[in-house]
Amino acid sequence: MQSAGPVLDVPGNFIDFGRVPRGGSARDSFIVANVGTGTLHLQAPYLIGGSRGDYRIIAPAGDVALPSSRFIRVIVEYAPVDSGCVSAGIVLRSDGGSDTLIVTGCAVDTAPPVIYGLIWFGGVPIGQCTDRTVNLYNGGDTAVVIRALTDLSPGDPFIATTVIPPEGITIPPRSFVPFSFRFCPTTLGLAGVVVHLVTSSEIFEISLFGTGGSPQVVIDPAEIDFGDVPFGSHRDSSFTIHNYTASPVTLGGQGFSLPVFSPGAPAQSGLVIPAGDSAVVRVRFTPDAPGSDYTGIDTLQGIGPGYLLLRGTSPIRALKSWTIWLDSNTARVGGIARLRLRIEPPLGAGDGVAGLRVRLRYDSTALFLRSATSSVAGVAVEHPSDGIAELTIGGGPGGDLADLDFLGLATGHEVNSVVMESVTGLPPGDTVVPGNGRVLLEGCIIGHVPQLGLRIAVHAVRLDPDGSVAVDYAAPAGSRGVVRVVSAAGRELLRRTLEEGTGEEAHVRLSLAGLPGGLYFVALVAAGDQSVVPMVLSR
């Protein structure tokens, strides 16, 4: 039942923009509705709080006059200037009440402060040293200071040849500085260490690897980088083993057993290299997971280890945050409200979405889902239980997914939510922010009030286009009664004497000509009982 006079309704009181790149922007919105009678006069929403400069109200641009059972969408933009999380308030003032909605968001740098990774020294003969340099890159907008380097102890075959002064090493914004290490192996075989680079912002890791080997066997090159290789494809490369010894050596290969790196020909995994000879060995990178991968091949058996580093990357799909919108709409009782289901950002061919499954919940006494259609792909609808609809939508480009047509039924609730309980079928790791829809019903509003203990009942009240109201009722056999239309203040406006009751459903029609729009009550009086239901008349 609608309240007498305008009433401000703001479903929810919080909008979280999440993580937004500094210098970028994001938009979100919420609904403001008038769930009372008469026109609600809403002042232009405005921001409060010390961080309100990071937010901007896009719409509405000024004051709004909102008729009964109407709504407006308030659009807010978050454009962070500085790093960190900030909040503000949106004040909504009207003659139908006031409310404050909180918005919050966190600004993040568009690039990591320092790029770090792995340094491979290759095979270094025992008693010799090799230097390697890595460029530490600051991709942020503020300077980063290197304070210290940890996890390198005296006697370690790896040493840092770049000295960090007491004031640290400053990396200006969007610049790099070189940082060098030395590897001096003392034993045969693979050696490695992970060092921690302590900066003014956080701690980064750099992995150092190398092998101590015999100068009588040379592996050229000591490292193969396959670069970026997409899923479903591969890339080949090769290396050469020079055997300068007086005995044959055999190509082993713990790395050959790994699915990510495989030899070009299986027979090469047991390849024998004669004394004084060389052999070209082919290797293949076939990525089976996103991200970076690397392994070593223990190439020599019987003479001591020689080590070759293989590395490659399969491009990592950036995780996305999707917003699934379900538009709100208004309909008269008995009419159709179309709610459009949209997704932002639009689905693209690279998103790997084969289909979406959306589970909706709504009040089945208020709404009936008549149809679901899509211009993008087919839509299948299942109804596992009353008031639940499960939509399976084929994935495809475009932001509009489906149009849902809801039939407005007679109900005691003029504001009816359509809630997205779940969304599945998006790529793993992605997050979904649901934007629920609403149907605002106008015209005849029937309250489903239990008629327990009453011998009479009003089954339905229908407002007809000709300006009359049809009342379906039941009264005991032999009883005589009246039907009345009463104002919200309790004043009787119309009265009609009923025919003698039969115990079955009967009908009576009253002309509403001359009555202005507003809230009224239909009262049935018979057999000593009275049944009252509300009715909203829109003009």
Helix count from the secondary structure assignment = 0
First-residue to last-residue Cα separation: 17 Å
**How many beta-strand elements?**
46
- Widest β-sheet, arrangement of strands: 30-39-37-32-35-34
| Helix fraction bin | under 10%
Let me know the largest β-sheet: 6 strands, mixed
Q: Sum up the overall morphology in one term.
A: elongated
Low-confidence stretches: 253-268, 298-305, 446-453
Query: Oligomer, anyone?
Result: single chain
- Beta-strand portion reads over 45%
Short description:
Helices cover 0% and strands 58% of the residues. By secondary structure, it is mainly beta.
Explain what the structure shows.
With 539 residues, the protein is mostly beta strands. The strands form 12 sheets. The protein has a 6-stranded mixed β-sheet with strand order 30-39-37-32-35-34, with no helix packed on it. A 5-stranded mixed β-sheet has the order 11-18-17-13-15, with no helix packed on it. Strands 33-36-31-29-38 form a 5-stranded mixed β-sheet, with no helix packed on it. The two termini are 17 Å apart. Residues 253-268, 298-305 and 446-453 have low confidence and may be disordered.
